[in-house]
Amino acid sequence: MTISNLGFTLLILTMNLCLYSLIGSLIGVRISSKTLLKSAKNANYCTFITLAFSVSCLVYAFVAGDFSIKYVFNHSSLSMDPIYTWVALYAGNEGSLLYIALIISISSFITLFFMPSELNEAEPYIISILSGFLLFFVTVMIFLANPFDTFQNIPKDGRGINPLLAHPGMFSHPPLLMAGLATIIIPFSLVVGMVFTGKFRNDGLDYIRTTSLIIWSILGIGLLLGSWWAYTILGWGGYWVWDPIENVGLMPWLIMTAFIHSIIVQRRRGMFRVWNVILIFLAFVLAQFGMFINRGGPVVSVHSFAASTLGYIFLGFMLFSAIFCLLVFILYSHKIKSDNNVQSFLSRESAFLINNFFLVAITFVTLWGLIFPLISELFAGETVTVGAPYYNSVNGPVILALLFVMGIGPNLSWRNTSKENLISNLVAPLALLSISFILLISFSSKPIISSLSISVIVLVISTIIIEWSKGSYRITKAGTPWFISFIKLIANNRKKYGGYIVHISILLVAMGVIGINFYQIKVDKVLSVGEEVKVGRYIVELIEIDENEYNDRREKIATFLVKNNKNEEIKIMNGNNTFYPSFNMASIRAAIHSNPIEDLYIIPSDFLSNTDMKLIISINPLVWWMWLGGPIFIIGTLISLWPYRTKKG
């Protein structure tokens, strides 16, 4: 048996396991057969094994250079850097579907294995949903997108990987983004299972929160890594240009952000149950919308796979998902009513609700910008492009309002906040906001919105610092040193203070966005070898231009000497412009000198001759902090997830 036949046979076996698990769990709960239910659960477990071996077959084919398999031929070649052979697995449509199926099976295995006893009654429904979801992907591969399809005549070499994917970001951004979108099925299945049993109460909410937080963080890290990738590879268009594929990853993340915050209120106050069900349904449908757009849907993007009828299969599945969610909500909404209502506008639960409103508003503004060109072309016959100016002008103020609520919310009490507490808690943060705003508009010629944005960040950071200071001070009264008190404070309430650390990471990303959008300096210049140009506090000299010919590409490299105002050398940097004839595609890598204050960013946009070239040089303030936000985001999430030690007795 060939490696391609073995891989495909394992897919067929997986499909049968999914069918058995789906049908067995539904029949088992219907006839109350524990044996059948256990068998159905074991079948779901086995899908992880069959898919792991199937993926191994495809990876082996890539490593061995088996060009008899069409997918291997289309996404690898003998001249390709061997390190990218390992990531070519998910570089195309068929392989990425196989990767997604593996992720679904792994996440299902982990979810079912660690599921708490409170969810035992809902488990059959959870298994059936997980198995049905996996069944869809496996069936699509078997009948429409077989990653093991072969040639009759074996080619000697492959076409090679898309040159824009030959980047270190390929090891992290695509797998995390695809995994994040696919695994939204986990909290979705948990919530639906609890709704079916009429027990969407506090039991099991901690498990839903934990799984949601993990998936939300995976998706968030994937988005940030994608921004970093786009920042270094100019073919993607910049760190964030509201590209359709960026947007379809962002929208579920925003809704999951709302869900994670809202579930806190349900856990503490027995509120927002209906709203939480709506949020997780919306996140799941938007994730399927992302799959549709990314699988050859009608929206053009440099990130999406080639256009094909496969996109409309995913459109059909998205519509099925939406109808399923609507029917579940209509039939079971009477079982998920909240125990309490918001008692006061000046309460923490009210702040959470406003937070949710802004997150949903940003989502729908983004969704409208994405689908409006389709509606215009379909009904008016006009081709319309919705670009970054629309998103920035509409979403910008909403994001600013969201950050403002982020600074106000922690100062409010549950149920109701007295006037005395409100004034006491807000006087310092609002004073710092006012002072920073006055200073910024007094000494800056930039738009008022930039000064207001920075001032709101000051508000949020000051709120967090004051909260930490008060908590640490209470612990120091017992004679504990300040630093130890701070560590104990976080350890004693990891969910709360881990969340604050995540908030800080979001603020750091916001700082980078503000810096590059409002304070950027940009110069377009044609330079000859030996010439220099002054940009801000830097002097950039073009030292040399080299050209290299390879089997699959032509590479031009520019070397720059960067000096300060005193003519002292800072750094020698390289930027390149590589053209791939077989793809008719160019990949431009910027030369970047980064520090906490600003980035010197040099784009070798066009090589005019062996001695002359056109450059785009910019100084991007505070971008370094945007990338620092990633590790802090991970640290905050891990602290929030870290379990408490269970005391015996």
Describe the structure.
It is built from 18 helices and nine strands. The protein has 649 residues and is of the alpha+beta class. The chain folds into four domains: 1-162; 167-410, no CATH class; 418-518 and 626-641; 521-621, Tick-borne Encephalitis virus Glycoprotein, domain 1 (Sandwich), CATH 2.60.98. Strands 2-3-4-5-6 form a five-stranded antiparallel β-sheet, with no helix packed on it. A four-stranded antiparallel β-sheet has the order 1-9-8-7. β3 (538-549) and β4 form a beta hairpin. α2 runs parallel beside α5 (123-143), α8 runs antiparallel to α18 (623-641) and α15 (448-476) packs across α16. The mean pLDDT is 90.
Overall mean pLDDT score?
A: 90
Largest sheet: 5 strands, antiparallel
* Elements, N to C (H/E): HHHHHHHHHHHHHHHHHEEEEEEEEEH
Roughly how many Å apart are the termini?
58 Å
Oligomeric state of the chains in view: single chain
Q: What is the helix content?
A: 55-70%
Low-confidence segments, given as residue ranges, are: none
